[in-house]
Amino acid sequence: MRQRADGSGTADQRREQMLRAALEVIVERGYPDTRIADVAQRAGTSPALVIYYFKTKDQLLTEAIRLSEDTWYATGTSRVAAIDTAAGRLEELIAMSCLPEEDDADAPNTSWLLWLDLWTQAARHPEVAGVRQKFDERWRDTITSLVVEGQEAGEFGPVSPADFAVTLSALLDGFAIQIALEDPTVDAGRAFELTMRFAAGELGFTWVPRHRAGRQADVGQRLAGVGAVRNGARVDR
Amino acid sequence: MRQRADGSGTADQRREQMLRAALEVIVERGYPDTRIADVAQRAGTSPALVIYYFKTKDQLLTEAIRLSEDTWYATGTSRVAAIDTAAGRLEELIAMSCLPEEDDADAPNTSWLLWLDLWTQAARHPEVAGVRQKFDERWRDTITSLVVEGQEAGEFGPVSPADFAVTLSALLDGFAIQIALEDPTVDAGRAFELTMRFAAGELGFTWVPRHRAGRQADVGQRLAGVGAVRNGARVDR
DNA sequence: TCAGTTTGACTGAATGTTCAGTCTAGAAAC
DNA sequence: GTTTCTAGACTGAACATTCAGTCAAACTGA
Predict the structure, then answer these.
(1) A57 touches strand C (CB under 7 A)
(2) B180 — contact with chain A (CB < 8 Å)?
(3) B35, B97, B114, B116: best mutation site toward chain A, by most A Cβ within 10 Å?
(4) Cα A226 vs. chain centroid, distance in angstroms?
(5) Which residues of chain B make contact with A133, given a CB cutoff of 8 A?
(6) Is the pTM of this model over 0.90?
């Protein structure tokens, strides 16, 4: 609403700027070691101002994580919605939790590290637990209805959508850990491939990895072609 | 080696006492919020003594987590070794990461919460990262060789043991999160069942849950019969 | 056997640092 | 002139770690 003299923008912009700063710091230093002073510095303001906007440190961090999850989900599902086959949509869904986003300047790269912090905090802080719970439910629901759609379209076999959703999301979470911790034996590409194989086997559609020798090429392709819809999933049941 | 007058035992016992105390506190308060004073109090000593034994707080906590993982793995695998079919061994392996241990007084219940903390710390502290890395490798190797054994015995079909191990361990980690955070839709029993179904499907053996209506009963059985070997896995390929 | 010495276990009281959150007051917008 | 923002300086509490010793068991040598 208000335009500051120095061009720093409205109060809302100020808030978001701080939230983004907070996210960066959380990813770097971890949730508990994130200091208000760090966030303030990165946002180019004073600690006092940060507290002025967010009553407490916890509120700031919780809101930051919520923002991150929400934007991640929103951009991901919008990409998903543009795909016409259920199998393709599922592939995109899996890609969005395995393969790195192109890091757009205005979309803070949802780091898997953030998830680790989210889980750990959720264990002890009810406030955060609520955020995670909702986020997880939404995620599983998304998978569930995607499966139902695929079944109605005849693309997928008759498995229990709920069971499949629970299992797939667990698998993705597990791989997220490996990716976040940069496990040498499980990089993002392998996680993606194994997950796709699981999904294909379980739901009964055939899937062939596009670039046999090129997981990196796959990632590169994501980075290069923004609008290019991945169409490797072939349905033939 | 030395016996104290008050019966507090040798230095080694002291150390272990502190490590166990540390584990309890970590589970309760979380890794970063664990204070030396807490550990000292629970071990019935002074903060200074804790530092006397473990140079720093980090060393104490890292060692505590290592101890926990090692005893968990050791007791689990010894149970596994007593089973004669590969499918049965696999089931026990899965049970040990899904279903709660009987909480023996001298074996601190490996809480899944500990894993969350382990992962989060591993992300930022190389020392901890090493511990996790080794632990994970060992775990996947265990699964891999179990699969190979099963294949040689003709119990399992011809899947890639390495791929299966990576996928299964990711799935288990993912479920561990849900269990740790007490997700209402994914309790330990359901996680166990879904994981077993995945394993059975993937490896090609048939598996029927023992107590259809009784996941809880299943856990209860574990709690009751210590030596009773679970023998629900039937191989028939 | 026993004074003297060493050594490891242990403690209470500092010390110093790190931070979240407050206070005061000035600048900008309306 | 009043409300909304903003920052610098500050406060108070929490905590890890240090230090300067105490205490008792174990060893040593006569």
Answers:
(1) yes
(2) yes
(3) B116
(4) 17
(5) 181, 183-184
(6) no
Residue B142: Cβ within 10 Å count: 18
* Cβ B133 to strand C below 7 Å: no
Identify which of B123, B167, B178 has the shortest CB distance to residue A113. B123
Q: How many Å apart are CA A64 and CA A133, to the nearest integer?
A: 16
C-alpha torsion B37→B43→B45→B47, nearest 10: -30
Structure tokens at B8: 């507090």
| CA A121 – CA A138 distance, rounded (Å) | 19
Residue-wise pLDDT for B19-70, tens only, equals 999 999 999 999 999 999 999 999 888 899 999 999 999 999 999 999 999 9
Tell me the pLDDT tens digit for each residue of A53-110: 999 999 999 999 999 999 999 999 999 999 999 999 999 999 999 988 766 554 455 6
**A181:B132 CB<8 A:** yes
Contacts of A150 (CB under 8 A, 6+ apart): A86, A87, A90, A156, A203
DSSP state of B206: E
Say yes or no: A57 contacts chain B, CB-CB below 8 A: no
Q: Is B230 helix (H, G, I), strand (E, B) or coil?
A: coil
Residue type (1 letter), B165: A
**Are A29 and B124 inside 8 Å of each other by CB?**
yes
Query: Which phi and psi (to 5°) does residue B137 adopt?
Result: -60, -50
Question: What pLDDT, in 10s, does the model give residues A182-191?
Answer: 999 999 999 9
Position A139, amino acid: W
| Nucleotide in closest CA–C1' contact with B48 | C11
Sign of CA dihedral B29, A122, A147, A175: negative
Task: Count CB neighbours of B148 within 10 A.
Answer: 15
Q: Is the pLDDT of residue A210 over 70?
A: yes
| Position A183, amino acid | D
Q: Which residues of A fall within a CB distance of 8 Å from B175?
A: 170, 174
| Backbone φ/ψ region at A235: left (φ over 0), alpha (ψ -120 to 50), beta | beta
State the sign of the Cα–Cα–Cα–Cα dihedral B175, B177, B179, B185: negative
- Residues across chain A: 237
Which residues, numbered 145 to 174 in chain B, qualify as contacts with chain A under a Cβ-Cβ cut-off of 8 Å?
163, 166-167, 169-174
Strands A206-207 and A233-234: antiparallel
Beta carbons within 10 angstroms of residue B124's beta carbon: 15
Using the Cβ of A119 and the Cβ atoms of chain B, whether some distance falls under 8 Å is answered with yes
Distance CA A76, CA A102 (A): 12
- Is the CB of B213 less than 7 A from some atom of nucleic acid strand C? no
